[in-house]
Amino acid sequence: MKALFLFLGLGLGFAFFLEALEIKTLLGLLSLFLLLLSFRKKAPLFFIVSFCFGLGMAALWNLPTQEGQREIVGIVYKRTDSYILLYHPGVRLCVSAIDNTYQVGDILKVSGNVQTLVRTHYESRFDFGRYLERFGVCEEIRYAKIENVFLWPIRSIELQNKFLAHFDNSTSSILSSILFNRKNFEEEATEILQSLNLLFLYSASGMLLSRFLSLIRFFCDKIFKKKKTVDGIVFGTSLLFIPLALSKFGMGKVILLLGLRFYFEHIQKKKMPSLTVLSIAGILQILIFPYCVFQDGFLLSYGISLAFAFFGGNLSRIESKRKRKIASFAFLQAIVIPMGIQFNGSFHLLSPLFSLLLTPFAVLLFSLGFVSYASFPFVSSLNALGNGTMTLIRAFSKIDLALPLPKWSPWVLAIYYGCFVGWMLFKEMDFPRVRKQLSFGFIGIYCLSLLPLGSAVSQGVYFIDVGQGDAILIRDHFTSVLIDTGGNLGFDMASESLIPFFRKIGIDHIDAFIASHQDYDHVGAKESLIEHFTVKECYEKASDFPLDVGSLHFENFNVFEADEENDASLVLKLDFMGKKWLFTGDAPIAVEKKILSSGFDVDCDILKVGHHGSKTSSSMAFLMAASPEEAVISVGSRNVYRHPDREVLDRLEGLNIKIRRTDVEGTIRYAKFSPPWV
After folding, report:
1. Measured distance CA(466)–CA(519) in Å, rounded
2. Is the entire prediction scored with pTM above 0.85?
3. Which residues pair with 552 in a beta bridge?
4. 91 phi-psi bin (left φ>0, alpha ψ -120 to 50, beta other)
């Protein structure tokens, strides 16, 4: 248990610097649970010491990098086809490198301008910047000059590409993901598996490596009599996967466990408890690369192992072997299903069954694929297996039983796993009544989160993060109004950003859509939104105002004739939640002057700054007349227009107006009530 508390304390101490509340909450709950069980065994002392050590290590790893022109020699510790992550003592950088063939372990010299990492982000879409933060990367070098210092003579990427070229597209896609963890999210297999919550099954993982090594052990047991020889061969085989294990922490855990067991059993001649060996492996991984504690693969892998270590006794007492296997499978699904919902925003009712059916195919593809890669391509066999797997995946995709569910908030995840641990604990202590209360308690809380009860008491204004564009949602209990949709030529803003956000906060329809004007960055997603979501009414002309939607009353101050699109932009005022709101669209200074000279009351508490902070809007006279407490700028990170303009920011700051920006904060919320599950 001492090693376990050292492991947990170290992980929680390092995670303390991360914003991801769910990780800290889960580690904290597990630590508290174990401390209560072992309070008299000096466990708190080990936990506190390792926690403090983790805090100190995190502080050292999070020292800011010196920005500006620099020349850095570092080692590649992660790569994709478009970028590499470079490590130099005290420095972790993202370096753009399109179509590169570098690999983990290469040493490079990069020269360029080191700056804080900034990436365009959108509501409900993958946030690349936050993803890199989980690898300790907060700086980047753009347009870097890259020089080779040392390249491994065996070029794995070139060998992989040469190997994959032997197979047809479907098989090549599956093998690329399952062997080398190179996923293309635009390919058919990846899209289907993601929709079925099964993408984890066809990624290079510790589970697949364990099954493959079990096959190696099975055949070695038939040939060799000595256990030490068999264990040595299995461990030696696992070392071939070290390049992948550097970024796939589940694989790293498998290799470390084999090495530690071999060391203790055959060199030290000691029989160490499985929990101790597991904890030492976790400590080593954190010491080698502390940011592994932020990776889903690391958390899930050790979470499953710890869960089976603590609660496997309940399963082992089931007499029937078949029932024991079913119970173990159900136990595993209870751990991984929430992660699938959190990642995908849906749950496929047959996902557990599909997982059971596809696992043998995944293991066969991984095993035969690796042997083929290490020797010579078994083209016909792997093509047949790959096409058969693809046929099965396509068949599963036709059974559409996916339930669209809101992605779980950190609090819902914490409550779920807290109830799960409590349920297993009280089963061990034989308290059936408490177990029932925990089960019904969580089910009740989650069902309440799915019902529109929050809408009955919720009010809010949301400036949705749509990059360089506008999209503003006003929610008054069961009434919803959307001003503009944003728009992006690279993806469907409605399906991938707006609609997932609406579902997350419990909105199933839009009562009124208002287009401020017809620029693409304001209405580019309108048609898709109407096609894929319930939009009852659309209002796009000045003559539609004043407009009442439920108890919401909108006035339009731009009643003047216009030739240019921005000159026709609606300027809307709304009294709501005890505040005055002014939404100015892209109205330029000329329109602002007309509004002021016509005597319209532009006084407000919250101002949506005109034209994304361009200096063509937001004149000093208009800002002084509006005198808002806060100004919201809806703008994309590092946009080509360089919005917001420094001149506008200076005006706002000079008037002591608080500035809020979607490129900095993401979606900006003003909510009178927000359910805890949102």
Report:
1. 14
2. no
3. 549
4. beta
